[in-house]
From TrEMBL:
UniProt xrefs under SUPFAM superfamilies: PLP-dependent transferases
The protein's name in its UniProt record: cysteine-S-conjugate beta-lyase
Keyword hit for Lyase: yes
Molecular function via GO: cysteine-S-conjugate beta-lyase activity; pyridoxal phosphate binding
CDD domains registered for this protein in UniProt: AAT_like (cd00609)
PANTHER family documented for this protein: PROTEIN MALY
Organism: Photobacterium profundum (strain SS9)
Residue ranges that the Swiss-Prot or TrEMBL entry lists as coiled coil: none
Length: 389
């Protein structure tokens, strides 16, 4: 059955990082290449959001704007209805993107030279913002068993006992696609409490947890485990609003929350984008059914790739992601190094994210963005078969 997600939208010449900047960012000439790298999808935002933005544009005045009660209540209602979480409005702080917010929190909670734990393979920008702030990454490698990843809690405890001050946790995880269970989240939070480590939980992928899996937010942890917790969220990945830079940091600890908002003020980050607030508010208020349809479409894309690999490229291995639209594909049986693997993929016209970009544990892997119309995915699969046959 054809759906609106099957529509192919031409994103060339729209300032798209994913489509227009492969040459500048990757050194690749863009003609004919299918970009499967940057983690944004190729679907239009929900119709209700587009309508609200058009109405806002027609108003024609874009002076200084502030979050109103409608903005807060949209977030609170979303968490209650979608995740059964009662979220106090006082916990919600707002910042111009998850990474800027995490960077500021790292500056607040650590000193130059301190260690910050991240799980690997892991999102490279966590490493970037840590090291550019003159802190160092302490790697906590995930355990992989036949393509399925779990946490190495014994190793994590050794990281904490060695003096780490902060842990950045991606839940659900980019790039391996795990939606961490309640038991896993409890275990991490209890270790953080034991060793006085702050847990920075990036939950930007939470609303894209696939239908047959559960998203356990750190906001559902017991109260006694929330006092050293910061949860970063946004509507951006969920509703295709990544360039509308607005994110919410949920901070239960009152003292840290006060310090965080003061730090934002010190950087002049106390004025908010009216279009971004309009889009996020409307998305949370109106687009739950649209999101369910999107997740169903993404799940079918995942299943298509899984079947294609199993039948056409059995030398590869895919563990279906539990959340998100990023496929973490094990190519190690090909016996190629990462440069050879990348060269073969690009020569066939497909641009993945190379696993090595997510740390040494990503050697021999690629990450493919499945947030695209089915026809695009079919073309990408055929090109991948051509590249590897």
């Amino acid at each position: 059955m054809t759906t609106h997600f099957d529509q192919v939208n031409d994103r060339h010449n729209s300032g798209s990082l994913k489509w227009d900047f492969m040459e500048q960012k990757l050194g690749l000439h863009e003609d004919g290449l299918l970009p499967m790298w940057v983690s944004d999808y190729d679907f239009k935002a929900p119709p209700a959001v587009l309508e609200a933005l058009n109405t806002r544009i027609e108003h024609g005045i874009f002076g200084y704007a502030e979050r109103n009660n409608e903005y807060y209540q949209a977030i609170i209602s979303w968490y209650k209805t979608r995740h059964n979480i009662t979220l106090p409005q006082s916990w919600i702080t707002t910042v111009h993107g998850v990474l800027p917010g995490l960077s500021i929190v790292i500056q607040m909670l650590t000193n130059i030279g301190d260690g910050v734990v991240m799980q690997t393979p892991g999102y490279g920008s966590f490493r970037k913002i840590t090291e550019l702030n003159d802190r160092h990454i302490i790697e906590n490698p995930l355990l992989e068993n036949n393509g399925y990843y779990t946490m190495d809690l014994d190793h994590l405890e050794s990281c904490f006992s060695a003096g780490a001050k902060v842990m950045i946790l991606c839940n659900p995880h980019n790039p391996v696609g795990r939606a961490w269970s309640e038991g896993e989240m409890l275990a991490v939070a209890e270790l953080c409490k034991k060793y006085n480590v702050w847990l920075l939980n990036d939950e930007i992928w939470g609303d894209l947890t696939m239908p047959n899996h559960c998203y356990f937010s750190a906001l559902s942890l017991p109260n006694e485990l929330q006092q050293q917790l910061v949860v970063a969220t946004a509507a951006s990945k969920t509703f295709g609003l990544s360039s509308m830079r607005i994110s919410n940091f949920m901070i239960p600890n009152e003292a840290l929350r006060s310090q965080f908002t003061r730090r934002l003020d010190s950087h002049g980050m106390d004025v908010y984008n009216s279009m971004a607030m309009c889009a996020a508010t409307t998305a949370y208020q109106t687009s739950a059914q649209w999101l369910d349809e999107l997740k169903s479409y993404l799940q079918s894309n995942i299943e298509y790739l899984d079947t294609f690999i199993a039948t056409q490229l059995p030398m590869l291995k895919l563990q279906q992601p539990e959340a998100g639209y990023l496929a973490w594909v094990d190519c190690r049986q090909l016996g190629l190094d990462d440069k050879q693997l990348e060269k073969q993929m690009v020569s066939a016209g497909i641009v993945p994210s190379m696993g090595i970009a997510f740390g040494e544990d990503g050697k021999g892997f690629i990450r493919l963005n499945l947030g695209c119309p089915r026809s695009t995915l079919i073309e990408a699969c055929q090109r991948m078969k051509q590249a590897l046959s």
